[in-house]
Amino acid sequence: MAGRQREKVVTDEVHQNQILRELYLRELRTQKLYTQYHVNPLRKVHTITRKPMSWHDNLEEPADDKFLNLIHHAAQEPRKKYSETQTESQEIGWFSEPLVNPERDDRRLNHFRVYNDITLYKAKMWSLGIDDRQK
Q1: 132 and 125 in contact (C-beta within 8 Å)?
Q2: Cβ atoms within 10 A of the Cβ of 101, count?
Q3: pLDDT of residue 27
Q4: What is the DSSP string of 75-120?
Q5: Which parts of the chain register pLDDT below 70?
């Protein structure tokens, strides 16, 4: 254990204060306070959003008709934008008009519930919860 040397333990408060003072002064020398900010010329320029409550940024600007038309076109449903489907999943429901005209008077396609005397009687009993089956 002769090769191992013990580290010095500093217990003197004056010496510790001097070490901390030198460390503090070294940090102050290397620090630099930036007060002027600018865009990095080596990077691409990105737009910076404006502040919503500032009065000078909220001045009225003329409307860009080309941009507004583009936004309105993008907000439309696909059937109004395109003449035919763009994807396979759009094919389902693309033609939403019924193939047969839904005439309510045509008895071949419309089978409505018809009540006679006996069916009205039975429907009323079932709605009241009465069971008239014979045991």
Answers
A1: yes
A2: 8
A3: 92
A4: HS-HHHH-SS-SSSGGGTTSS-S-SS---TT-TTT-------HHHH
A5: 1-4, 6, 8-10, 45-46, 57-58, 134-135
CA angle 29, 33, 39 (to 5 degrees): 135
Structure tokens at 6: 């013990």
10-47 tens-digit pLDDT: 578 999 999 999 999 999 998 888 888 877 778 776 67
In this predicted structure, what is the pLDDT of residue 32? 82
Closest CA relative to residue 89, chosen from 75, 105, 78? 78
What CA–CA distances, in Å, run from 53 to 49, 59, 60?
12, 11, 14
- Vertex 108: Cα angle to 106 and 111 (nearest 5): 90
Which residue has tokens 């002769």? 2
